[in-house]
Design goal:
Elements lengths: L9 H20 L6 H13 L2 E2 H8 L3 H13 L3 E5 L7 E5 L1 H21 L5 H19 L1
Antiparallel strand pairs: 1-3, 2-3
Helix pairs in contact: 1-5, 2-5, 3-4
Length: 143
């Protein structure tokens, strides 16, 4: 059986691209007090509203224990608070604070600048096609 050339793998290219995005995002976020993983957590909370720690862990694709530590740090730094779910008191919802909402504008600007840099020379239709393909690949892998 022939050996797999990793450069033939879409997953390998996605991994390399993700690492480049995270490194560049880290530089863009410098001085904000927000790490790339915290940025991703805030992005999900901005888009979806309050989430349980389990839902946030699932969205970030991290272990529940890792999510607890992440939310602990974000709570300590004033980015989020935990609130009891009105329908189930055992569940804690992670809610963005006013401080996080205030910083979201500047970190969103930094993220938009990063995307502008990353997409330079790439046609918007190509970007949309890549998004559709990656979404299909994710769905296939989640089956």
């Amino acid at each position: 059986m022939p050996r797999l050339d990793p450069y033939e793998s879409l997953g390998f290219h996605c991994s390399l691209t993700l690492k480049a995005f995270i490194a560049a995002l880290e530089m863009k976020l410098e001085g904000t007090g927000v790490s790339p993983v915290q940025h991703m957590a805030l992005a999900h909370l901005t888009a979806l509203g309050p989430l349980s720690q389990a839902e946030l862990a699932d969205r970030l694709r991290i272990a529940p224990a890792t999510a607890v530590r992440l939310v602990d740090r974000m709570e300590r730094d004033g980015w989020v608070i935990r609130q009891s779910d009105p329908n189930d008191g055992r569940v804690k919802r992670v809610v963005m604070t006013e401080k996080a909402l205030d910083v979201w504008e500047s970190i969103s600007r930094a993220a938009r600048e990063l995307l502008h840099q990353a997409y330079r020379g790439v046609h918007p239709a190509e970007i949309e096609m890549v998004k559709r393909v990656l979404e299909r690949v994710r769905r296939n892998l989640e089956e």
